[in-house]
Amino acid sequence: MRISLVSSALVAAMVGYGSTIALVLSAAAALGATPQQTTSWVLAICLAKATGSALLSTWARVPVVLAWSTPGAALIAATTGVTMPQAVGAFLLAGALVALTAALRPLGRAVAAIPDGLAAGMLAGVLLPFVIRLADTARADPALILPVIAVFALVRLRNPSFAVLAALATGAVTGLLHPLSAPAIPYTLPHLTFIAPEFDAGVLIGLGLPLYLVTMASQNLPGFATLRSAGYEPPVRPALATTGLLSMLAGLFGAHTISMAAITAAICLGDDVHPDRAQRWKVGVAYAAVWVCLGLFGPAILRQIAALPPGVVSALVALALLGPLTGALTGAFSPPPQRFAAAVTLTVTASGVAFLGIGAAFWGLLAGLAIHALEQTATRVRRT
Fold first, then answer.
1. Which residue has the higher pLDDT, 292 or 175?
2. Is pLDDT above 60 for 239?
3. Distance of alpha carbon 30 from its chain centroid, rounded?
4. Which residues pair with 355 in a beta bridge?
5. pLDDT class for 204, splitting at 50, 70, 90?
6. Residue 286's closest CA among 23, 9, 53?
7. Cα separation of 108 and 233, whole Å?
8. If 0-12 CB within 10 Å is exposed, 13-18 middle and 19+ buried, where does residue 4 land?
9. Are 72 and 256 in contact (CB under 8 A)?
10. Binning pLDDT at 50, 70 and 90, where does residue 187 land?
11. Closest CA to 133 of 324, 360, 311, 327
12. At residue 361, what are phi and psi to the nearest 5 degrees?
């Protein structure tokens, strides 16, 4: 095990954890999770990522690294009126659908049939409300937030992967001036807390189904593409089966879905990781070991983040989602025939409207599909 393998795995894991852990905490808060359930959520998802990364990398001899679904966490954080047991039911559905995508080819074709622009529009609609809050947060407390934004912007010019991590460190420093402080609780090893699922039809359709779609469209597919661009053949069906089943297992302890990594995966695929391409799969094992450590020390890390001023956490979430939002907007408006339908999908999703107990992401996608079908039909009629 070369030191370069360990260092690459450590950097990738720290970037993935530090840049989006605040968003996971926002998702847990939106569901009314208790501190024990939040700790269990983080531990379960860290262990699931570690297990999947080690198994897939060892079996396929390909450097496979997994991530939690960042857009999925944003989707969860945007929900209202959903309890943790209901959310667990939705997590189980999303994980089962990912696993079934590997087993049932018709399901994979059905997902692939959703126009790319509309899927990206739904994702953009989920992310946009979080990013918009950045301006209001900065206005409310400029002395606290503007340094965080400035460090993010400057570090991003040099290394975009570390920009949010640097912003988090800046927020921790500026937060020392705030009267909040970390609670004086001794560190104890975290433990998993079982949460009995509750299957509510509205939550399954409004949260579970969109969670599956954004995980597939914005995480798994780019993750496979990242491996291909590095010259590796991704183990698509085994990866979907593994991440789906592990997501279901972790979901019983409060965690949302895991998926293929894209941005952090790129850190683990270069020549500097290992000069021998055939040996780079070992970075997946090192990556797994780092995530086990992050899971075990989760309570100490979460306690420090919880001590940050709320404005800093909100700003970190917004900054972390700027990159995914940029990609989603680009994808939504790239195909000219889908632009109007994508705009409808985005606006309905971003509105946060809920109807019949079903969340806005579902209605946004449904509205976009209806407009797209209407436009396609009108085009065929004009041609005939």
1. 292
2. yes
3. 16
4. 358
5. very high
6. 9
7. 19
8. middle
9. yes
10. low
11. 311
12. -60, -40
Residues 6+ apart with CB under 8 A from 250: 44, 45, 47, 48, 91, 258
Amino acid (1-letter code) at residue 330: T
CA angle 261, 172, 301 (to 5 degrees): 55
CA distances from 47 to 117, 133, 292 (A): 34, 32, 6
> 65 near 261, Cβ under 8 Å?
yes
Q: What are the structure tokens assigned to 165, written together?
A: 């991590």
Paired tokens of 220: 């798994």
pLDDT, one tens digit per residue, over 51-74 is 999 999 999 999 999 988 888 888
User: Quick one: CA dihedral 69, 73, 78, 81, positive or negative?
Assistant: positive
Helix H or strand E encompassing 259: strand 258-260
Provide the token pair at 90.
Answer: 């939705």
State both tokens at 347.
Answer: 């606006």
How far is Cα 346 from Cα 120, in angstroms, rounded to an integer?
8
Q: In the chain, what is the greatest distance between 2 CA atoms, to the nearest angstrom?
A: 74
pLDDT above 90 coverage of the chain, percent:
23
Nearest Cα neighbor of 259 from 297, 209, 321, 211 is 211
Integer Cα distance of 289 and 282 in angstroms: 11
| Residues across the chain | 384
Considering just the CA atoms, what is the radius of gyration of the chain in Å? 20
Q: Is residue 50 a contact partner of residue 289, using CB atoms and an 8 Å limit?
A: yes
* Backbone φ/ψ region at 300: left (φ over 0), alpha (ψ -120 to 50), beta: alpha
CA–CA separation, 55 vs 237, rounded Å? 14
**DSSP assignment letter at 83:** -
The answer, as to whether pTM is greater than 0.85, is no
Give the contacts of 334 (CB within 8 A, at least 6 positions apart): 116, 117
Helix extents (H) in 252-297: 263-267, 282-296
Instruction: Using alpha carbons, select from 211, 286, 227, 293 the residue that is nearest to residue 260.
Output: 227
Sign of the Cα pseudo-torsion (321, 325, 326, 327, in order): positive
Those residues with Cβ within 8 angstroms of residue 231's Cβ, 6 or more apart along the chain or in another chain: 277
Which amino acid makes up residue 241?
A
